Amino acid sequence: MMSGTESSDYTQRLARLENSGIKRLLPTQAPYRWNLKRLGLGRVLDVGCGLGRNLLNCGPDSVGVDHNETSVATCRDRGLTAYTPDELAEAPDCGPGSFDSLLCAHVLEHMDETLGNTILEQYLPLVKPGGSVVLICPQEAGDKTDATHVRFVDFDGLRAHAEKAGLTVERTYSFPFSRPVGKVFPYNEFVLVGRIAP
Length: 198
Hints:
Blueprint: H1 8-18, H2 30-38, E1 44-47, E2 63-65, H3 69-77, E3 82-83, H4 85-90, E4 99-105, H5 113-123, E5 127-138, H6 140-143, H7 155-164, E6 168-175, E7 189-195
Parallel strand pairs: 1-2, 1-4, 2-3, 4-5
Antiparallel strand pairs: 5-7, 6-7
Protein name: Class I SAM-dependent methyltransferase
Keywords: Methyltransferase, S-adenosyl-L-methionine, Transferase
InterPro entries: SAM-dependent_MTases_sf
């Protein structure tokens, strides 16, 4: 189940957090932008795109999808291409195999495992055979920062999702710092990079 991520209040909370504290003074998103770009993901389907923070750093013609209509509207206001799930299903350039990769960042922790598997199953056919899949979830300190998180998804949880989806796991890593840092630093992430069968 998902909890509270579909409301306009949730979008407003994300917008406030984008420019709060040290984020107003330092380029805190730079390491995360670098991490996405170095993966060479091509045209990305960003599932659960939120305000488009990651979508901004994806390849040309990348597309976001989110169940929160207010967040989708915010992405569009920022010049990004984003759809609700129903709109994506009707988009002419978003059919089966039309994306090089799928990104699912800070999404799976907002739902139970069954729904997480269903979401991946729904969107993976839109990625071409042999395409990449990147799954990202917060570590312990970050997990505690959002009341809409319904479960903690670590490396084992990400691998379970990848296995259920039939992905080949190419690598998992802690970013931007080593794994122990995630217990105190709220922006440390679990990252899984997988591949769809060719």
